[in-house]
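To whoever picks this up:

The parser on our side crashed when reading a file containing two proteins. I've narrowed it down to the boundary between the first structure block and the second sequence. Both blocks are reproduced below exactly, byte for byte. First block:
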Amino acid sequence: MHFNIPIFIPHLGCPFQCVFCNQKYISGVQNAPDIEEVHAIIRQKLSTIGGQGARVELAFFGGSFTCLSLEEQRYYLEAIQPYIAENKINGIRISTRPDFIDDERLQMLKKFQVQTIELGVQSLNDSTLKKICRGHNVADVRNAAKMIKSYGMALGIQTMVGLPGEDSAMELETAREVIALQPDCVRIYPLLVLRDTKLEQWHASGKYTPLALPEAVERVAAILEKYIENDIHVIKVGLHPSDEYAPGGKLVAGPFHTSLREMAMTKVWKRNLIQHLLPVQKNGSRKDITITVADSQYNYAIGYKSENKDYLKQYFNRVRFRRSSEIQKIQFDVDYC
């Protein structure tokens, strides 16, 4: 099993302010932790992790880690080394900006057992990046990705749906560009309007309207289909549940939902099932059907709130789903009786 120990360093080091960004709200942390706090977090998390063979990774999230000075980066990284030496932690993961990647930084990160670098990319459209005040361009992303892989580190890419001025076609083009970079993992986030951001001002003035939840689900589903087809590992869709997104919190507007991934994968599976099952069934008599899917896809295939199973009941007498460890991705076997 894999476990992450997250250490949040909200907005620490980043010289830019994207229109949507307020990392203090996103992470739920107001100040960067000192070393004693880092040790306390690690000890507490390690006490909850049990079992042989568990892989534990320390993850610096929330800010742009490589925007810190080398001295500040070393300050945090050195604190983790004793846990690595004792095999309590197996590696380090950081998130950062693509324009703050260079040989000097990568050499130090490699020395201190950083194994994965996730790049906050958001879009691979230069016009969009300029509009959201991202502070880097697409060429920076390509260059950073190439350098990270050349150092033997795993590459992560984070993108968003619903950015100002972007439609589904533009998001799919970003997905195709991401696929070309061959990352080891990706994350997909919906753009949310948070308090005390430039985006909140745009929303209030009518300059920006966030995606409605159904549209966000469809757009994420379209991207997921591309990634699944190309064996791109999606480790996260949407944001973690937080009191910040409850009524009266920092969320002003936008498609926040704790089950965004399940809802999007429901759409992926619904299209898959309709494409392969209904053309046959519409030309024959009603039957019972058993659909066998991969273990990891079982809930998605049935659908959020059983949406897909209920849909198929319009065409089949009885619909059953079964798990299998032998089936891959979104393939499935069908038995009729």
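<<boundary where parser fails>>
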Amino acid sequence: MKFSEIKEPRLMGLIAYSGGGTKLFQSYLDGHPEVYNIPMYPLLYFYPHWEAWQEQYQEVWNWDTIINIFCIKHSSVIDSRNIIGINRLDSIGESKAEHVAIDGEKFRSFLKQLLQDEPISRRTFLLAVNYAYALCKGEDIASKKLLLWHHHVVDYLDEFLKDFPQATIIATIRDPRIKFYKLYDQWTKVDQIKLNPTDAIIYRWNLFHQLNRYMFLAPYRLKNITNSKGVLFLKHEGMASDLPRILRSTAEFFGIKFMDLMFDSTFDGKVWWVPDVYEMPASNEPKPAGSGASKVSQQVLNKVLSTDWKNQKSPREIFIFEGMRWDFLTKYGYEPFYYKKDSMIERLLWMIQVWFPYQIEIQDTFSYLNPMTHLNILVSAWKEAKGDVKRKYYAFNATYLYKYFYKDLKLWQRPFFMSWLDHAAGGFFSMAAAVLYVAYVYARFWGAIILLPLRYLQRLWIDYSTFYKRISTGEILAPVI
């Protein structure tokens, strides 16, 4: 089969905007015969990879090179156990012991066949990857009408839209007041998984800093990339309260057939379980397909819809959030509790209230200054130095190179003595390298403490910038699907 013989499908780019549920939404389209749908988002960092590959392999820049490096750097497309993320596609199915996989040799063969005689372009390659994946699954290419590209974040979305300017972006939204606190808890757990124990302690400030950027500044990045005509919002809460309508509207909008299988939350036809990091109840339970309830358990849906947080969080902080996202809240039915009218008095009060530290900032400061934290980081550094705790290798996984959350930390850079520590066979040199490692870690920890006032000022800048952008230009307020 030739690439030119395949009818190009419509494109859906799926991202998390100010809410979650992208994985859940994608799982409802799993197995739909008219949809190209590679599970989760193993292609997330394709665009920065492509740019790096072009430079690194410029002397042998051909389809064979591209296919080979792609199958290494994005090997989880072939087998979800190759690069295991927090989405846990290695533990799906009723037994939580199954995974997603295709035949790697067939995948390479289909790619070579499709790309033969085609000019090299990333757009062509992206389409070919999805075509080849579907062919490996034995799916009918002729019946495909829609390609679901789970881009997940705003980062590199501009490059995606350069390749596919006619794509429709589905952006999930949720009440940002509860999402803020939920993300902080989730990202804390992600750091404990993704980072060395010492780095998780040192970069605790980064959680709060990136959270502010994501929740309040990122919406304006989307506006700079596209406009509301190319975006549809999907309310996370709606998937809990109004799923049948959402699925029918999705099918109608993208011109695919509405099917009962769309009520089942699966990947590769196997039950998907919400990862532990999201702190959800048991996420699936058997229910009749087409019942309008899906396999996602009612406990999960109830937690998504819960408003218990209103009485548990700081009214002052909720007031600040509402001031920054007032237009968004009122547009999409998230009733403001404290910042009600966007009056001049409320704006002036907001400008004063924002100077007071958030509870998270206070807690983090005390954590850094706590003597037990100092002892903990010294003990953890020693265990890492001696190999009692395996140190992370940050240079291979694209998460550390390109994810907005980590890329500015430059975790992939390693001081000279790290190689010394890795290869020391024991004795004096091994001990010296271990001591140097502990000193290096502890110095970085003190650096984080010294810079805490700067982090506070950065937070003020983000909050004031967001508030100014809202009252001057506004963010995207797209139609809801």
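After patching the parser it read the second block fine. The two ends are 36 Å apart (CA to CA). The beta strands are 10-18, 35-36, 146-152, 168-173, 231-235, 266-267, 270-271.
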